[in-house]
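Backbone-to-sequence.
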């Protein structure tokens, strides 16, 4: 009867394999962290794009101007005051009173008896999007743009009506020679910032500022 030889790893072979495996992990860790950061940038960009479209849809649905603002606060219907910012983690959607209507900020719809109807307010904060407090994904608007407004047909407009919840600012007109507002989304560790563009006519799109729209459809 022939003997059967049982083979296996020697200690030296095991050490070599573990060493190579450790080197591969060390080399791949920065790439993994970069990939995760890029993923978070895209997630925030998609949320921003969706909420800009919701702002536009609410303006059409409510037949009134609705504003979109960046902020580091978390406004609600019950606590609507907040400070707008050009660069921030969060944002808010605010419905504005109709001009010359006698409406006030933070007004709820009322029934025939004058009682508030539960649900979305007639004016005031409709939605706030709040990122995790530890997030480093920043959204930055065009210089000095604290608010943009959509009108009842979904176009960008200037607004003389003060946004009372945001310190009385209003939506400024587009600077001469420009046809859009841009929002930049970036994060520490990410190598692919993204941009969300809102055009005067109401078109909203996300694009990659590192690519040219002349050659690639997702470029800016």
């Amino acid at each position: 009867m022939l003997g059967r030889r049982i083979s296996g790893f020697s200690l030296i072979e095991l050490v070599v394999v573990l060493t190579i495996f450790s080197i591969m992990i060390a080399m791949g860790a920065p790439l993994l962290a970069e990939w995760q950061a890029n993923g978070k940038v895209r997630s925030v960009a998609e949320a921003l794009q969706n909420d800009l479209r919701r702002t536009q849809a609410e303006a059409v649905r409510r037949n009134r101007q609705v504003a979109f603002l960046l902020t580091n606060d978390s406004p609600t219907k019950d606590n609507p005051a907040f400070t707008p910012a050009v660069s921030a983690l969060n944002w808010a959607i605010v419905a504005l009173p109709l001009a010359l209507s006698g409406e006030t900020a933070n007004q709820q719809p009322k029934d025939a008896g004058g009682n508030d109807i539960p649900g979305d307010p007639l004016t005031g904060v409709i939605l706030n999007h709040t990122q995790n407090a530890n997030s480093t994904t920043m959204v930055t608007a065009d210089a000095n743009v604290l608010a943009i407004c959509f009108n009842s047909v979904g176009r960008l407009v200037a607004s003389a009506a003060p946004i009372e919840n945001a310190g009385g600012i209003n939506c400024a007109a587009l600077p001469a020679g420009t046809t859009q507002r841009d929002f930049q989304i970036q994060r520490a560790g990410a190598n692919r910032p993204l941009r969300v563009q809102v055009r005067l006519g109401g078109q909203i799109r996300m694009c990659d500022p590192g690519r040219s729209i002349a050659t690639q459809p997702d470029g800016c």
